[in-house]
Each structure stands twice: as C-alpha cells, then as structure tokens.
Amino acid sequence: MVPIRVGLLGLGTVGRGTYELLRRNQHEIARRAGRGIEITAVAVRDVEKARAIVGNDVSVSSDCNDVVSDPEIDIVVELMGGYEPARVLALDAIARGKHVVTANKALLARHGNELFDAARARGVMLAFEAAVAGGIPIIKALREGLTANRIEWIAGIINGTSNFILSEMRSRGVSFDAALKDAQRLGYAEADPAFDVEGVDAAHKLAILSSIAFGVPINLDAAYTEGITHLAKEDIKYAEQLGYRIKLLGITKRTVNGIELRVHPTLVPLQRLIANVEGAMNAILIKGDAVGVTLYYGAGAGSEPTASAVVADLVDVTRLHTADPENHVPHLAFQPDSVAALPWLSVDDTVTSYYFRMRVADQPGVLADITRNLAEGRISIDALFQREPSEGENQTDIIMLTHDALERDVNAAIKRIEALPTVLAPVIRIRQEELL
To answer: 264 — phi, psi (to 5°)?
Structure first.
C-alpha cells in the first residue's frame, strides 16, 4: 500500500525527534498502522540546517504554506508552537481536507473549539496526544480507556520545570531563585520561565483535560492560575514536618455546583504516589466512579518522549484515514451534540483545606487573636505548631493546617489577620488536597 504522506511544520526539538523516530522504527510503525508513514515535506526557518537532518529525499521550504497547500500531503503536523500563524495554518490544512496533528497546547487551549469545529465540519481528524504531558498517553486514556466512567476529578503534575524546581528546593534546601537558575542551566527552564513557574503552561493543559473529562467546551478563561514564585524553602520544610509535600498541581473537579479549574501549589500527603514524583517528570491522577483513582506517570517533555505521542497520533490517523468520519473517535471524547455548557466555579466558591504560615510578634495573645478571626470565618484548625524563636529573636512563625473551608471565607479571614498589628508579614496560604 502507498505510504501516507506527512508534512512537518517545524523541525526543532520535537520535530527532529518525530522525524528520527519514524525513520528508526519505520518497519514496526508500518506493521501497526497498516501502511508506511513518511515525512515528505518540511517547512523551517533554516533550510540548510534542515537539509543536513533530512537529506535530499524530503522537500524543504522556508514557507509553511508550501507544505499546507501541497496536494500530495495527507497529514500536516504542526510543531511550531504559539497562536499565530499556527492557527491559520491548521485551519487552512483542515479546509484543504488534510488531517492535522499538533503538540501545541497553547493553541488548543485558546482556539481549540474553533479548530475542532472546523475539523468536524470537514470530516478530518485533529489529533493532539502530544499537547498534554509529553510521552504519557493521557488523552487516549481519558478519551477512550476510561470512557465507561463518570470522571469525578483530575489532579496532575503537568509542568516538569516547576516540579524540578520544587524538587530541588526540597532535596537541597535552596531558595526558589537558586533552583530556577539550576533549571535554566540544565535546559529545563527557558530564559523567560514565566509560562512555567506562573502556572500558565499547566493551565493550558488542564483546560484541555477538563473538556475531555466532563464533556464541556474548552474554557481557558475559567482557569484560576497561581504559580510557585512566592514559595519559600521554609514552606517546603514545614510541609515535610507536617507529612506533606508541595507540588504545583492542575486540578479540575466536577461538583454539584459546577466545574472547578485551578492551577496552584498544593500540599499533598507524603503517602500518595504523586507526592513522590520528582525532577522534571509528570504524573496525572484521574478518578472515575467505576475504576477509582488511576495514575499515569512519565516524561512530560523532551524530544523523543513527545515525538512518541506525535507518532502515535500519526498511526491513529493512518488507521482511520479512509474511514467514514462518523466513525472517528470524537475529538473531545463526547459526541458533538452532547457537549454541555456546564457552569464554571470561581476559585472563591471552591472548598478545600489550607496551610497557613504567619510571621508574628513573639508575645502573649497573638495566637488567640488569630484563632478568633479564623472562627469568625467558620474556619477550624486541624493542626498547629509554632517555631521556637532563636535567642534574642522577638518574632516567630505560626504554622497551621485547617479543615475544609470556603475560599471566600478564607480570603476574608486572611485580610482580618493581616490587619493585626502583631502579624508582621503577609500570610502565606497554600491549598491542601487529600486526593482520595
């Protein structure tokens, strides 16, 4: 059978990994797909550099439109990143009847609804396994493997850079700034790491997962996003003393009042497997009503781990290339006419338990004032300890864990506590999840 022909937009880290993986495992991949899969055209900025990688058997152009408009191309793989021109190129490929494979989580989180509608109307596939958690086949697991379940919640370490930084802060006792410099030196973090350390990258991925889990449109604007830049090594140490580890988690839950969608540092009990995921690795917990809690672990980035997911999509598309579009697996798991516009909860309306660190004057009555303000907000204390001040020191830290409380009540209580003259710095607040 004639091989299926692929055009590649971008030959960076993932693009090169995809090309080399297809070449190295071509026989095994063809056995699974039912026919060969060949990259026949590439669009890149540096033509000479690309030519040195792909040789003379692949058409190389500096114009992406050459690949998208090529009538010989069956599948366009978009590995450029960013919103534009990726969105326009993907829409053009779809309009020309070509399937699209992408690893672009930012594009899907912001424009996914538009792209999926266009692909469905044209009867082509838009595949995106590599957009979330790199080499972990989480999209397929959630969309197909768990299809019998009513998904209750998802909680995941879905940004390796932030997890590496938190792991370094814990294991080496260093500050956030020192751990970030190590991450940049080792290539885990960009020169401008904001998307990673501020939780934006994780929010992109979580918005996609939430849509597949609950059968709702992708809604990035509903995501509450909080990063790890404000965390101190003291918080890491105190959390460990209390039996917890701090992870930047993306969390989405189905509740009776609506869907939660939030990214933030989270205290996780040490006995949970996800609490022990270290370095730049990713891990995702999914709870279904039938299967219970399942865990998916692996490399969330990197050349060949991400290329593994891209090639898996190419195999899926190849298998169904000539199939009736009505028999394709729905892009977002649910049939298009069953996607529901469920309400999205503000973070103010979420309920969880909390960790507080309060820098206070070391004098009588301080703790009583704090607990009184918490009681006014219907916030009860689960555990508490006070750091013994050093000799001659007139201030100390009070550390608390609370029972479940409404975020709105917690915000009001923190505001009252910070107004006390004996509270010497802003209250550090970290949400806590049991993940049961």
So the answer is: -170, 160
Q: Which amino acid is at 172?
A: R
Report the number of distinct structural domains present in the chain: 3
- Mean pLDDT across the stretch 358-386? 94
Buried b (16+ CB within 10 A) or exposed e, 87-126: bebbbbbbeeebbbbbbbbbbbbbbbeebbebbbebebbb
105 is catalytic: no
Stated pTM of the model: 0.95
Note the pLDDT tens digit of each residue in 375-401: 999 999 999 998 887 777 899 999 999
* 344 within a domain of the structure (yes/no): no
| 8 Å CB contact between 115 and 91 | yes
Query: Which residue in 105, 140, 181, 205 is the catalytic one?
Result: 205
Domain assignment present for 343: no
63 and 73 inside one domain: yes
pLDDT per position as a tens digit, 158-212: 999 999 999 999 999 999 999 999 999 999 999 999 999 999 999 999 999 999 9
